[in-house]
Amino acid sequence: MASTRPLGPLSPAETEVRGRLRSHIEVLSERIGGRDAQHPEALSETLDYLENELSSFGYGPSRQKFSYGGQDFVNLEAERIGAKHLGAVVCVGAHYDTAGGLPGANDNGSGVAATLELAHQFATLETSRTLRFLFFANEEPPYFQTDGMGSYVYAKRCRERHEDITAMLSLETIGYYSDQPGSQNYPVGLPPIYPDRGDFLSFVSDLRSVLLLRAALKAFRNATSLPAEGAAGPTLVPGIGWSDHWSFWQFGYRALMVTDTAPYRYPYYHSAEDTPDKLDYDRLSRAFTGIAALVRNLTAA
């Protein structure tokens, strides 16, 4: 079905990005498959893949190892030091685990692929602020919103080190879009002012991060034809804190989730049908264009 909001053709750069994003997602969800604590070999293979990609871009990625429930896990970090304000840090992160050993093409292969591609594009770009690309373990249950989340462990370490994290973006399930009326649902607690078609990317924050939310929406909308919607609310609203940004909120940092709204839109959420063929790669590449512009904005100050 044709889009109800004209988007125009992909640029040559977006076409190239489209191919790389799809390739990463296919590796993660088809070649590697389910990535969780019950499949430690898949977690290890994922880390090797991410490290090899980051190294090929010129980074020296580092592993943050931690233990929880008698098992060892790893967060992965790649950093580009800021040229002017090296102590001010912008974090872009995605969780690389999946729920229940599922393929996880969208949740969260899409977020991981976009984070990798951002690392690729920013590898040779000078930024005023330090920029970190993060890949977290243990976002999914049974670790969700516990101190066993990889992002919780990471954010806790940042606070212990008194690091100035000026913004954190959590890229969470960003690859599915629909033009069908009624394809978009919302949690109880949000006002009935949002579109009923799932043809947009969503930016979600707590009330403390609302200024970051507004800046993010402005930068995104100026860079791409893909529609974007924003919502800021108390963390008790279902869905507001459903990813790694929640961990940074626990330590007083401003953070956003960037998402296609996952279970409120995606019919294959947390299922064996969350496979690469379900994603809209044209709109995913447009989403990437906007996210990249947002990151440039955040790191330029």
Could you tell me the strand content as a percent range? 15-25%
CATH class: Alpha Beta
Gross morphology is: globular
Query: CA-to-CA gap between the ends?
Result: 41 Å
Mean pLDDT: 96
Low-confidence parts: none
Q: Look up the CATH topology.
A: Aminopeptidase
> If helices are DSSP runs of H or I spanning 4 or more residues, what is the number of helices?
7
Strand order across the largest sheet: 1-2-4-3-5-8-6-7
Give the full name of the CATH homologous superfamily: Zn peptidases
Q: Percent range for helical residues?
A: 25-40%
The gyration radius over C-alpha positions equals 18 Å
Reported for the largest beta sheet, the result is:
8 strands, mixed
Q: Find the structural class using helix and strand composition.
A: alpha/beta
Q: How many separate domains? A: 1
CATH architecture annotation: 3-Layer(aba) Sandwich
> SSE order in H/E notation?
HHEEEHEHEEHEHEH
Give the total of beta strands.
8
State the oligomer.
single chain
Outline:
This protein is an alpha/beta fold and 301 residues long. It contains 7 helices and 8 strands; from the N terminus they run ααβββαβαββαβαβα. It has one domain (12-300): 3-Layer(aba) Sandwich (Aminopeptidase).
Features:
301 residues, alpha/beta, Aminopeptidase, eight-stranded mixed sheet, 7 helices, 35% helix
Topology:
Elements: H1 12-32, H2 40-56, E1 62-68, E2 71-80, E3 85-95, H3 105-122, E4 129-136, H4 150-160, E5 164-172, E6 201-205, H5 210-223, E7 228-232, H6 245-249, E8 255-259, H7 281-300
Parallel strand pairs: 3-4, 3-5, 5-8, 6-7
Antiparallel strand pairs: 1-2, 2-4, 6-8
Helix pairs in contact: 1-3, 1-7, 5-7
